[in-house]
User: Which sequence fits this backbone?
């Protein structure tokens, strides 16, 4: 039988599948609409996320909120989570074994949300979901499929904060996602006309 949200929340709270839980303040499972048509997957909590227990609430999160608003999606209407639920020390990239240890939680979230479309944010999400050989610079803006769900990658909002020249590509990627959601009949109350 499929895990319930309550069970999953307990499992994540109690998780010690890798050593990341020893160095963080708290778990950051993810949040948003539990039945969202669009699920976003980032890398892992940063300092502010670790402090607040919520995904994407720091500077990258603020940019993400604006990016979603630019395609007429209030962030409360999507589901947002990360590849790893514990903050890696000094915000380093999660190790492959840490990503693997957390995979069970991500797969449970995916199964519960049943998203129509998944948007991967940055290289770690790409490697965690599409596979280690995939490169964000090559694969962003293109559709892949995992478990019957269309999956598209774009640059991580932190990368956009570091390098503004990537914003143009990210905007095109987001418009592709919006178009797919329209084609699938998702968010009919929100997605009308040109963004
Ligand atoms: N970066 C991420 O990948 N996830 C967050 O939750 C915050 C910053």
Assistant:
């Amino acid at each position: 039988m499929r895990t319930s949200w309550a069970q999953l929340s307990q499992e994540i709270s109690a998780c010690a599948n890798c050593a990341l839980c020893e160095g963080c303040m708290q778990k950051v499972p993810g949040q948003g609409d539990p039945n969202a048509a669009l699920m976003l997957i980032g890398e892992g909590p940063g300092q502010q996320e670790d402090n607040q227990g919520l995904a994407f609430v720091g500077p990258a999160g603020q940019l993400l909120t604006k990016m979603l608003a630019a395609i007429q999606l209030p962030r409360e209407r999507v589901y947002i989570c990360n590849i790893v639920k514990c903050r890696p020390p000094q915000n380093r990239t999660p190790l492959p074994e840490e990503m693997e240890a957390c995979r069970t939680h991500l797969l449970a979230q995916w199964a519960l949300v049943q998203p129509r479309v998944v948007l991967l944010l940055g290289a770690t999400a790409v490697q965690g979901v599409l596979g280690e050989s995939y490169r964000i610079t090559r694969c962003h803006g293109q559709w892949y499929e995992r478990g019957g769900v269309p999956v598209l990658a774009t640059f991580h909002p932190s990368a956009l904060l570091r390098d503004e020249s990537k914003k143009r590509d990210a905007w095109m990627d987001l418009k592709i996602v919006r178009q797919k959601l329209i084609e699938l009949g998702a968010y009919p109350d929100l997605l009308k006309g040109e963004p």
Notes: The CA atoms of residues 109 and 116 lie 13 Å apart. The chain has a mean pLDDT of 97. Residues 96-113 form the longest helix (18 residues).
